[in-house]
Amino acid sequence: MHTFSGPILLATDLSARGDRALDRAALLARQFGTPLIALHVIEPHSRKLLTPQPSDDEREAQAQRRLARDLEGMDMDVKLVVKRGDPVKLLREAADEYGCALIVTGVARDETLGRILLGTTVEKLVREATQPVLVVKRRAPRAYRNAVVASDFSEGSRQALRVALKMLPVSGLTLFHAFDLPSNPKDELTARGFQRTAEEAATEFLEATPELHGSEKPKIHVAAGIPERVLTTYVEQTNCELLVSGTHGATGLARTAIGSVADSLIEKAPCDVLVVRHA
């Protein structure tokens, strides 16, 4: 297992649910011995607000106190940053300025509808950030023990695998590929042939990944069906802790720039989701 070479950037809205992302970011920073940058962005007041609001200076001071309180006593190198302006722009700039290797953020949930609300900031951040973005959904009692890496055998999914190798030992990784079957396969033998072809392609993909040369390989699992559906089902059945997916920006497997599949993955997967944007 390799390790992250740069700081971890925590994007926090200071909400109670955001504590899950904070705990995971702190755990990862301890695990890899990297600094933690905790950033909160104050957005401009909406002109539609009719009630008196604190000044920007007051809001910044409140945010600084809250961040300091949340991170008090942490035995690591922590930097607290509060900025004003556009969240995505400032998060991207901060990630580049501090040389961050990973951005960690949380999600909000609509308790009435029972679904995750990605929100404009998270959607744009996952789409635009050059660093991998970890969307935290679960509590963080310990380091990740297992992860599923979604793959279409592209270079983008190889980049996702490389990031996964920095976070977990190979023994905890499963390479997952979803393949299409003819609408009416002629017989079971034909279906098994498609599966065998997919498994062989997965094996070749791993063999062609330099970081794995001469070492143990991740487990392979292939399944017929629509990627987001079979992947979510597999993650649920195996009690997976982390789902990792690459992206080609706006297209590719799981269009993991909050496209149709990635939208489903982040919303429906019962675990944290790590999105690695294809450079």
UniProtKB/TrEMBL annotation:
CDD domains: USP-like. It comes from the Bacteria. Residues 7-137, 144-277 form the UspA domain. Gene3D superfamilies: HUPs. Coiled coil: none annotated. Belongs to the universal stress protein A family. This is Universal stress protein. The lineage of its organism: Bacteria, Pseudomonadati, Pseudomonadota, Betaproteobacteria, Burkholderiales.
